[in-house]
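DM from R.C. (forwarded with permission)

"hey, sorry to bug you on a friday — could you get me a structure for this? deadline for the figure draft is monday and I only need the backbone to look sensible"
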Amino acid sequence: MKEYLKKLYTKDKNTYFKLLSNDLKNNHKRFIITVNPETLMLSENDKELKKILDGNYSFVPDGIAVVKAARKVGTNVAERITGIDIAEYLLKLANENKYSIYLFGAKAEVIEKLVNRIKVEYPNINILGYSNGYVKDRDKIMKDIIKKTPDICMVALGIPYQEKIIAKYFDKASKGIYIGVGGSFDVMSGTKKRAPKLFIKLNLEWLYRIIIEPSRLKRFWNSNVKFMFKIKR
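My reply, with the result:
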């Protein structure tokens, strides 16, 4: 786990965004993995996910627990960079430059609401395609994505499924930024609310999510709490 913390991007969010802008401008490709405690804890018993984390991809610290853990092992991470912040920035950038996008994941009603929002708020984005995450053949969707060569591909299937499906096809992509965004489509579509700004500023989004959805408590214990115990050991 220590080696994964050492692979995290260490500079600030705006500097990272400049890298993404440069990637798109020059038709480079990047697979972004938003690393949080759940990602790292799951990798201990998931060989396929561990193999992905062993790869040469772009690891960003999505979560204050990961930032603090990285600092404890000597990696001076500047700040957390959340998947939803990256996703929102990419939409803004795509609209400004008329980039293309493909959206894959979430429930059918969620993806439809998100697409409608993009059409209204970001009319210059070229939506090459979209699909909900409950299709039987996810490989078929990914093959379509690779064939259409989007500038940006967001996959919201949850950890570790989104990372696995992207990793399976990423080498076949000729360009584009690929990112697994977890439950971000729910927030971006307006289906769910993001934590209030005060919670975000104090790095307490995790607490807000537990308050709103108490069922997350067991998941939080198995990922964040056990992760911090492990880091202390």
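R.C.: lifesaver. Residues 42 and 112 are 30 Å apart (CA to CA).
me: no worries. The radius of gyration is 17 Å.
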